[in-house]
Amino acid sequence: MTMKTLFDREGVTLEAGDARLSLSGQPDFDNAAELADSGRKWLGRREDGVSIDLCGVDSASTATLSVLLEWQRHLAEHGGHVAHLALSPALSRLAAVSGLENLLPGLNVAEISAEPPLSLETS
């Protein structure tokens, strides 16, 4: 599968190929709007299932989850859907802690629950 680079800046890369988006690096609120826009342009008016791979995202960020939710909303508006969603361990924990796992279609919730609980220790 040949991947096309849609965004590549400051260690954050968004690539697309066939029916798959792949994001890696450490997205944050400085580049979230541009990432969301790049993904929306590639998604266009897709009416099929798309696979989204966020396993290469290095850190848990609500900015990344916001981008993902924007892509999901865009797909739904055009009759498409997320067929498969893969999250990095850090994003999986963030989705579970924030209660978003039920809003993320294509995500295997069993994978999240297998993760150790997030520690909120204070010193």
UniProtKB/TrEMBL annotation:
<protein>
    <submittedName>
        <fullName>STAS domain-containing protein</fullName>
    </submittedName>
</protein>
<dbReference type="InterPro" id="IPR036513">
    <property type="entry name" value="STAS_dom_sf"/>
</dbReference>
<dbReference type="InterPro" id="IPR058548">
    <property type="entry name" value="MlaB-like_STAS"/>
</dbReference>
<dbReference type="InterPro" id="IPR002645">
    <property type="entry name" value="STAS_dom"/>
</dbReference>
<dbReference type="Pfam" id="PF13466">
    <property type="entry name" value="STAS_2"/>
</dbReference>
<feature type="domain" description="STAS">
    <location>
        <begin position="21"/>
        <end position="123"/>
    </location>
</feature>
